[in-house]
Amino acid sequence: MQIVTRVDLGSYVSGVLRGEASVLQAGAARQAMAILARTWALRWSGRHSGQGFDFCSLTHCQVFAPRQGTADEAGDDLDSAARLTRGQVLQFHGALADPYFSACCGGMTEAAGNIWPDRSQPYLISVRDPYCAASPHNSWNKSLPAESVRQVLQDVLNLPAGGTLTELSVAKRDSSGRALTLHIVAGGSRTIDANQFRYAIDRSLGWGQIQSNLYVIQREGDTWTFSGHGLGHGVGLCQAGAEQMARLGVSTSKILMTYFPGTEIVSSFVDEDDPIAASEHFELIYPASQEPWVKQTLETLEQWQKEMAPHSAVLPGRMRVETWATTEEFIRATGQPGWMAGSSDGSAIALQPLALLSRKEILNQTLRHELTHLIVHRLRAKGVPRWFEEGCVLYLTGERVDAPSNLRTTTAALEAAITRPGSEAQMHEAYAQALKRVSQLAQNGGETALWRVLTHPGADDLQWFEK
Ligand SMILES: [Zn+2]
Ligand SMILES: [Zn+2]
Ligand SMILES: [Zn+2]
User: Fold this and answer.
1) Which ligand sits nearest to residue 394's alpha carbon?
2) 91 & 173 share domain
3) Residue 237, CA atoms < 13 Å, CB-side half-sphere
4) Cα of 126 to ligand 2 centre, how many Å?
5) pLDDT tens digits for 303-326?
6) What is the pTM of this model?
7) What is the dihedral of CA 114, 118, 122, 126, to 10 degrees?
């Protein structure tokens, strides 16, 4: 039985990130992978057209992992990597690049032409990568008994290997140092392809015995030991290196230019052809149906940005705001529950359909709320809980919360309810409590006190957070 599902390109990219890039933690590395996943999808769409779909969900295409339930923290970040790179692809001289990647290159990436002669590209050359040195995949050892190697040669590769194995060595290496062919003496003498050997060992002894072709072979008595570097073919982006670069603050584009020299990131918006409206600080991506509310949205955002000065100086020069045609699309794209009006992360704001917010008369309030989140979130010091951020946002936007605020809960329960509310009612209760606590603080010290506690909490503030 085969299940075929239809997803938009953005959701496909998110799903591929869940399948192929869940080990990556740093935003810039995830965004680099999002650009590769999108480039690959556009380059190869229709490769299964004979079977009635574009892509399978396995390694043959790209591993696609659908969302499980609502987004957890990690899923959220993977979605935002897809969203923040929306429409961006990797190109070489105006054509989509071949976006290869592997888990760890072991210090030197592989030139595509070395292993796949028909896929040689000027940007898929071997580059030195000092960044993946600390990866657990960078160095490995594998010892194999001579008898099992001989058996594999005989059974899987059909080689006449009647005698004992007396020699196993790299006969030829490619320009990256990876083994191309191996010299084998077991009775007779033979030269075999290194990839073929690696796959044969994997097939009969289990996956991942020999992690890459970047190795040296040593014999000790009846044992042959492979000492190697890296995991995978090593062509294109090295995930371990990209992660390390991102942690050091290297940008997404620098990461991609390192592994694909000579390419460029191009915003193509192929298949994601929603219009974009821009104002001085905001870029609003919206489906055509939401057009009537676009002007008001941008004006409200610009105005609130001004009113929040000087604190809004912490915001990036340009912020991305996105909205969808239906609540269902909003849920699918953001992973937020349907009763959330909007959400924000990093430098992006996601909104329910503008038409819906306008009808409920909460459009301006939601815009102010989410924009204030971006500011407060960026200023929030370590140790300051999420409930305090939420309370500050509600206080600063002057929102009223219609829910009882006199229920006693622990701060831990409040923090949980704010981070992951189980229902709309629970969220409103948590909001009311957060607002009440923050208002009490503001009553004594004014708004200045809020900003001080948010950015430079003292020991007694940290204690108060726990009370
Ligand atoms: Zn496939
Ligand atoms: Zn590497
Ligand atoms: Zn909020």
Assistant:
1) 3
2) no
3) 32
4) 11
5) 999 999 999 999 988 888 999 888
6) 0.59
7) -20
